[in-house]
Design brief:
The complex is a heterodimer of chains A (283) and B (262). By secondary structure, chain A is α/β, with parallel strands linked by helices. Chain A has helices spanning 33-44, 56-68, 83-97, 121-148, 160-163, 170-190, 207-210, 216-224, 228-239, 249-260, and strands at residues 24-28, 48-53, 74-77, 103-106, 152-157, 194-201, 271-274. Chain B is 45% helix and 14% strand. Chain B has helices spanning 16-27, 39-52, 68-82, 107-128, 156-176, 194-207, 211-219, 230-241; strands at residues 7-11, 31-36, 58-62, 87-90, 139-143, 182-188, 252-255. The longest helix of chain B has 22 residues, at 107-128. Chain B is of the alpha/beta class and 262 residues long. Chain B is globular. The chains are: A alpha/beta (283), B alpha/beta (262). Chains A and B meet through helix 6, helix 10 and strand 7 of A and helix 5, helix 8 and strand 7 of B.
Chain lengths: 283, 262
């Protein structure tokens, strides 16, 4: 199969009628990459996304584009790696959805292609602050109120690396494994009122890869001594992804929307892989 | 309905989950082959579907998925009917007749359960894969069970057959990815079918309590506090078969109200 990984054309998926109309959906890290696709998927389903990100300019552009097509949406600028940032989301969210949104999508995360030898304790801690503690703090801030309100759904974006680590990006994989564990604990704590599930993407073509300043593509190009799509395809082949391509952000968005909706009303504590078949272990 | 409409085969189509699955695909405009062990039952379901959805293209098939000749005949019938098969939905399964330790579980019973629950999906895949399109629209969805995710003493035949389905799905996903065919399964928890209600009635009779008492006692052990209606399983099957799941393969989606969090 041809690479085509980096073309990343945004093909809108058909809407599935997930009965999400009017639902207020908080999406962390919503301004770019997978988060952006999640926000747009919910908007297409008729929900009202509340996109939270540290990048004010990207949020502004996203909101403008959504409003131009008649979709209602909100944005909140916040540094989700800090308790202060979470407090800001709670404060600003009050005027948008009251005490809690109908759906929370914990998506924000960061990761660098580096081995544990190249990762300082401080860097490891910073990864945990954003990838783990943002999710923990958001859930602590909103789930008691969500239960009071009668229910809701939480979807957390983890990674196939949480189940099947590689030899690098160790701090990222560990943070995602921790998040997956917290999600199951919360699924037990808040059942039967709130459903809590995870989506575990495989490699998805986003600014994580393409960004010219910090994107992984450069590292991959150096590692395989190849350029562009050829380098990414070498990585995909190396990892043995059966579908032999990277995933697209909207493919993750579709799974998140499905698990957020009442169409999956009997699913809680589950993880759905969106990974082209990368998981080799049975469970 | 045109000949270009996607086609699906649903095995176990007259059971609680199968019936809901067949209806879901018909409602979404698919041509649906409905297969089950009794011809009169599939004929009756076909009539129901044609009445409820006028113009629906429904093919009733008598099928024992544990039998090679029966599956071969069904594959021929489907080839003649639609020429290809967009989605193979393997829903049929049997329960172990009673819970007994391995030392008392007859080999014949172990083999009977495996023949339908694991050999059946294997035979179906073997004979229907050649009919599945390789343009990225084709997929296989199998019904596993949360008992395939966790061990239940006294049910060696059933548990291992369903764990086998989860493994078969991963093997097939790896084999068929280069043909653009996705393979996934749904692992139901307690589903409020006639099979489940009969189980509750039997247990209630054994314990000398009412059906309602037995149901409440059983459902209180489920984190979501109820048994899912059959449509929760068919909704998941339909999602995994759809273009919405285009990067999902080798996955088993738990739809179990939280009884197992794998």
């Amino acid at each position: 199969m041809a690479a085509g990984n980096s073309s990343a054309e945004f093909t809108e998926k058909e809407i599935m009628d997930l009965r999400l109309t009017g639902k207020r959906v908080l999406v962390t890290g919503g301004a770019s990459g997978i988060g952006d696709a999640i926000v747009r998927t919910f908007a297409a389903e008729g929900a009202v996304p509340v996109s939270v990100d540290i990048d004010a300019a990207k949020l502004e552009r996203q909101r403008g584009e959504l409003h131009a097509v008649g979709a209602e949406s909100f944005s909140i600028v916040a540094d989700l790696a800090t308790q202060g940032g979470i407090d800001a989301v709670v404060a600003e969210g009050r005027s948008i959805f009251g005490s809690a949104p109908d759906v929370i999508v914990n998506n924000v995360g960061t990761g660098r292609l580096r081995t544990i030898e190249e990762t300082s304790d401080e860097e490891f801690h910073r990864t945990l602050e954003l990838n783990l503690f943002a999710m923990v703090r958001i859930c602590k801030a909103f789930l008691p109120a969500m239960r009071e309100n009668g229910g809701g759904s939480v979807v957390t974006v983890t990674s196939d690396l949480s189940r099947q680590p590689e030899d690098s990006i160790t701090d990222y994989a560990a943070s995602k494994a921790a998040v997956a564990s917290v999600a199951k604990s919360l699924a037990r704590l808040y059942a039967p009122t709130i459903r809590v599930n995870c989506v575990a993407p495989g490699p998805i073509y986003t600014p994580f890869w393409s960004d010219e300043n910090y994107g992984w593509q450069k590292t991959v190009e150096d590692a395989y001594d190849k350029q562009g799509d050829a380098a990414l395809q070498a990585l995909i082949d190396d990892r043995g992804i059966p579908m032999a391509r990277m995933g697209r952000p909207e493919e993750v968005g579709a799974a998140v929307a499905f698990l957020a909706s009442d169409v999956s009303a009997f699913t809680t504590g589950a993880t759905l892989g969106v990974d082209g078949g990368s998981i080799r272990a049975l469970f | 309905m045109t000949n270009a409409a996607p086609s699906v085969l649903v095995t176990g189509a007259t059971g609680g989950i199968g019936r809901e699955t067949a209806q879901r695909f018909v409602r979404e405009g698919h041509r649906v082959a409905i297969a089950d062990i009794r011809q009169d039952a599939v004929d009756a379901l076909a009539e129901e579907l044609r009445t409820e959805f006028p113009g629906a293209d429904v093919l009733p098939l008598e099928l024992d998925q544990s039998s090679v000749p029966s599956v071969e005949a069904a594959a021929e019938a489907v080839r003649g009917w639609s020429g290809q098969l967009t989605t193979l939905a393997v829903v049929a399964g049997v329960l172990q007749s009673e819970g007994v330790p391995v030392t008392r579980l007859p080999v014949e019973e172990f083999q009977r359960v495996h023949a339908v629950n694991l050999t059946g999906p294997f035979i179906l895949a073997k004979h229907f894969i050649p009919l599945i399109p390789t343009d990225g629209t084709g997929s296989i969805v199998m019904v596993a069970s949360y008992w395939g995710r966790e061990a239940h003493p006294l049910y060696a035949a059933y548990c291992t057959s369903k764990a086998g389905v989860i493994s078969l799905v991963q093997v097939l996903a790896g084999e068929l990815a280069e043909d653009g065919i996705r393979v996934n399964s749904v692992a139901p928890g307690n589903t409020n079918t006639q099979m489940h209600q009969k189980h509750l009635r039997d247990e209630a009779a054994e314990l000398g309590i009412t059906f309602e008492e037995m149901r409440d006692k059983h459902w209180s052990t489920i984190p979501m506090r109820y048994a899912g209606e059959p449509h929760v399983i068919s909704d998941a099957i339909f999602f995994l078969a759809s273009d919405q799941a285009s990067y999902i393969t080798g996955a088993t989606l738990d739809v179990n109200g939280g009884v197992v969090m794998s």
